Amino acid sequence: MTTTVEESIQLKQRTGQAPAPGTDNITRFRGMNTVWRILRMAACYRLRLLIGVVCTVIAANFQLLIPQFLGDAVDHAQSLLATSGASPEAAKAALATAALMLLGAGMLRGVFTMMHNYQGEAIGQSIGYELRLAYFEKLQRMSFAYHDKVHSGDLMTRGMLDIEGIRRFVDGAMLRTIVLVILVSYGGYHLISTDTALGLLALAFVPVVAWRATVSSIWLRRTWRALQERMSVLTRIMEENLGGIRVVRAFAARAFEMGKFDEASSSAIAIAMRRIQIRYSNAAFMTFSYYGAMGLVLWVGGHKIIDGEISVGTLAEFLAFMAILQQPVRQVGMIVNSTARAFVSGGRVFSLLDMEPIVQDAPDAKPLELSDGVIRFEHVDFSYDAGGARPALSDICFEVGPGKTLGIVGPPGSGKSTIAHLIPRFYDPTGGRITIDGQDIRSVTLDSLRQAVGVVHQDTFLFTASVDSNVAYGDLSADRERIVNATESAQLHDYIARLPTGYDTLVGERGLTLSGGQRQRLSIARSILLTPAIIVFDDSTASIDAATEQRIHAALKQVTRDRATIIISHRLSSFMHADEILFIEDGRIVERGRHDELLALGGKYKALYDLQSEFGRDLAGPAGAPATQGV
Amino acid sequence: MAIMPHTLAVPSNTPGGGPEGGLSDEMDERIFGAAFDGRIIQRFATYLWPYRARLAVAFAAVLTFTLTQLAIPLVIKEAIDRALVAGAFDADLLDLIALTFLGVIALNLIAMFIQEIIVGRTAERILFDLRRAMYVHLQRLSMSFMDKTEVGRLMARLQSDVGALQEFLDTTVTAIGDIILLAGIVAVLVSLDVELGLLTLSVVLALLVVRMFWLPLAKKAFMRARQTSSIVNGALAENINGVRTVQEMLREHVNFERFEVKARDNLRSHLRAAKFSQVMIPIVDTLTGAGMAIVVVVGGNMVLAGTLELGVMVAFILYVQRFFDPIRSLTIQYSVMQRAMASGQRIFEVMDVPIEIKDKPNALAPDDIDGSIALENVTFGYIEGQPVLHDISFRVAPGETVALVGPTGSGKTSITSLIHRFYDVWEGAVRVGGFDVRDLTQETLGRHVGMVLQEPFLFTGTIFENIKYCTENATLNDVIAAAKAVDAHDFIEALPQGYDTMLEQRGGNLSLGQRQLLSFARAIVADTKILLLDEATASIDSYTERQIQLALKRLMEGRTALVIAHRLATIRGADRIIVLNQGRIVETGTHGQLLERRGLYHRLYSMNYASFDDIPEDLIREAAKDVSST
Prior knowledge:
The structure holds 2 protein chains of 2 kinds.
Chain A: H1 5-13, H2 23-28, H3 34-43, H4 46-78, H5 88-141, H6 144-149, H7 152-194, H8 196-202, H9 205-243, H10 245-250, H11 254-306, H12 312-353, E1 375-383, E2 391-400, E3 405-409, H13 416-422, E4 431-436, E5 439-440, H14 446-452, E6 453-456, E7 465-466, H15 467-471, H16 480-489, H17 493-498, E8 506-507, H18 516-529, E9 534-538, H19 546-560, E10 564-568, E11 580-585, E12 588-593, H20 595-601, H21 604-615, H22 617-620
Chain B: H1 26-29, H2 38-48, H3 52-83, E1 84-85, E2 88-89, H4 91-140, H5 143-148, H6 151-192, H7 194-241, H8 243-248, H9 252-278, H10 280-305, H11 310-351, E3 373-383, E4 386-396, E5 401-405, H12 412-419, E6 427-432, E7 435-436, H13 442-448, E8 449-452, E9 461-462, H14 463-468, H15 476-485, H16 489-494, E10 502-503, H17 512-526, E11 530-534, H18 542-556, E12 560-564, H19 568-573, E13 576-581, E14 584-589, H20 591-597, H21 600-605, H22 617-629
Parallel strand pairs in B: 5-12, 5-13, 8-11, 11-12
Antiparallel strand pairs in B: 1-2, 3-4, 3-6, 6-7, 9-10, 13-14
Helix pairs in contact in B: 2-11, 3-4, 3-6, 3-11, 4-6, 4-11, 6-7, 6-11, 7-9, 7-10, 10-11, 15-17, 17-18
């Protein structure tokens, strides 16, 4: 409840699709390998990354100093036994120095580790933030054709889990890999230069681990995807069961539903088990190779001590170094896993981010210039399939001017609603063109077009918010008076006024449940509040009884007096007063004219009229035949 | 006007709210509580019990694994102190020790393998068990609970909460291993040298003190981070589901701005939480350094003085390095455990909702019943003290079609719900085929009483699967016959894959009328003696409307039918009409009889509304008053 009127007007007036901050970072690296692309995004945080890498290097170096100090300390401690002739005082002083160095190295390593971890996490969180914003922005712009095809649960998974997967990779795996590489390479160099054979032995486990890690990475990536798919089947089954619990109960289908659940569940378990097998047998194998190398160092190193080639301190240094390596080596599995996940998750997120909405502003789009508000369909064709194999509309022509009403009727699936979807460019026609005041709607900006056109649909989405913010959804600056005017016209005001908390009542998923008719009335109120120049009712009164519908239309007369109105309905009484009525079948206009002309024609419209009269008033509204109604 | 779903409680003004209410809201917020809750662990343990044999093996493996890890520095110590003593080298002994080392790590490999695989697999199974148990429980809970509780929230429990437990199980075993390792290290250090051991261990004490101050602050930061995440996800979910409205209403920019504010808040709170978790690292590392310094100075001097063997010092160094690993991972596991406890609490909260409708131990399961329905002095309500049905009695003879009519809230739906025993009556009895519904198994009741809901619900799957639904022995021919009976065959055949056409989410690729026909066909395949039907209120196009009217007739043929009727054609076609108002039967009779009586039915009928449900309440009240006063 914080947005002020000025703010909202300002927001409303902002036209054009300003890219989200960071969007350019996302588009810039398009076409790269997923993981590389994530890394390139991370590279954009130059300062943080620089600090992070520098701190990583420093921390790794301090860590490498620790075994050397320890080795020295052991040698000093042993100095008396080795009869090297050193004085106890000198040895004690050396020990104290080594201890101080150890304390200092430990502390500095900690400080720099903290700094690089923090930078890593900050970069990760920032990339997560960037992706989240870009994802949100892109989702909002994607055309209906996309949203028709994609499951909302899937979009949610990508927005939550997949972005999280990428973030974790950046913060967990990216800098840690650097630590690992420095420790192994620099430490390895130091060891090998100290004693070649022993150094090589100490590092013997590294290639084994690298090999296993790569192999398991491929497997884990493969099974991760499979697991996700099966888990989403399981989710869907549970969701449908709980959503349709009344059907389940009504059919006493508990056993049947459990069967479905168990089947999906066990197929998910099977994959999960495979994953565990891969992950842990690799982990065990990697650990073994690490300890094996340590055993070899002890054995060969021991013999070297016996042969007088190295000191016990050197051996201790080697062993201490290997102890330091143990933790990062264990993390290899984690890094691999997280990389595999980032690869899959990144692929899923970027695939959406890289998509362009089919419907978008032309490069030279201009704001729509409204003069009268005349809408024209000129030989419009449309198909939902890409190939146009099954045309939903063919050769649709009509014109509606201000103050005029067009009625559209036809059997289900005839393409009526498609017409409503084409006007605000939720889809683009495959042939012909649609103009408003002579301007092709593809040549004007989407924002200005959608501002001029209001479509009221059959299905209404309610946001979890108060009634008044739902009604004023399209115009935050609307005051209570305008809201009440709109709900009064939509015949919803009386109901809301009777609620204990009135217009502040919470509706939507977590709020009060409205009936289908009430939702539709709210949707009508929502659209007329915006006073669009062209208003389309797309079967938006299906759940409203005919009597209320008549009252709504009577109330709207005032609003639509100087506007073009298109009413799509299967209920003839909804538009019998229309200036023109189109009868659509299989996407074509088969009959057109005024109500009385069409009746006189004696064709399909007449047949439909007779059919509705047969059912009498329960379809057409009060008092008998529709012919006496609303004209 | 900000949309912040998580801060808002579900208002209790929705009809059908049960006395026990839905799931509490505060629970979702209480994310960080105790890391250890005995009751939850205990509850959880019951799910571990079936796997006790495996877990015992796993435990033995964990023990072996930890012991071998502990042994490795000791073997090294032996090598230094026995085979590599300056001036007294023993090459043979060194070989022997190296061989011992090999044996130890082989054992380590085997133990680790067994531990990880068994634990991983068992944990996975337990989670599926737990999810299943919760799901089964949800299948049995009363409708009043289900009415009150959003699907989304239940799904969150079935998924994120179970997921949190998965993390918990995965880490628990490591935690147990870590604790054993820690205890082992302490024991070994003290037994190697008491003085040096205790001195070295003092750094652990320092760590514990630091943590005591750190934890309460960190907790707050972590909680805030989680909260902002759920705000962001809530906003994302709403925009995905309402994307069409967002585009229509040109709300993209406003919503983006608002989302940006939430996302930025989320970023900030996570960075703050990161600072808190990272600040522990230098502390732990400094203390590790201090531990080593102690070993070097004190131990080194002891070696110089000849009171400590050199190998012991090396072993100490190796142990100290390993020392903080278990503590560090225990710190991570602490927050995992906290989350798990909260999740466990939420899961068991669902599991603890009592099942109100249960089969009696000796419940009957007759194969055949006559199709009669009888309500005998039934009083019932959803909230204590607020009955919605008062002393209702009526009988429906086998084969009869009875229409229930009345304004919204008159109790029609409650009556059909009681016949299907979605709820139990407060007083009186509901009889189906002469049996009290409480004496029959719920399965039997489902076999004999079918129900068609107002809003057709379709499942993901083919049309064939949807019509067949749970009638296991139904063949394709049965399904086709049912589809033909309700006149759905033609449109199904016209679809690209006919009966094998996959339905999109909730049957999105079909019209409402078509979905309704499918739900009729489903009821025909189920072929129950008794049918409870809630007629749709939404008017459908006239073509489908006529199909539906005809289909309804065929559906009710040869069955006892109780219809919550909205269409006049349906009402007129019924053998008898029962008029309800405010939970009482006002009048009964045929359409003609009721019109003649000039009572409430006549009054409402002459108001010329398409459905009685649409009549404004005040008009009804007025009509009822008029009727009762004359």
